[in-house]
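Our preliminary data section would be incomplete without showing what the modeling component actually yields. Below, a chain of 105 amino acids is followed by its predicted structure, encoded as tokens that our downstream tools consume directly.
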Amino acid sequence: MAKVALGKGLGALINTRVASPTPAVESGERVQPMPLNKLFASPLQGSQIPTVDQVRAAIADMLARLGPAGCAARMAEEYGEHPTEAVRRMLWVLGALPAAFPDEP
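Predicted structure:
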């Protein structure tokens, strides 16, 4: 017989407490979001071997042109229409951001 747990979360289905997906922040620690979707939404390509300045400029340009919600929408659209290519692009984005923002966590 199936358990009735609609609307009660995963913990209700497996009878255990499920950790929050957001990690707790320790006292004094700063958490800064990385601009993943802004670089993802940009026309900049990894095959161009962009410089750190080009990556930062692309992020600033996309934020100015589309705003945070527009960048997120563009990324979601790409995952919907071209999921395989979107994964490859995100891997490039994840590799490019640490060099562009070395002081971020």
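The helical segments are 10-14, 36-41, 52-81, 83-100. The first helix runs from residue 10 to 14. Preliminary results of this kind motivate Aim 1 of the renewal.
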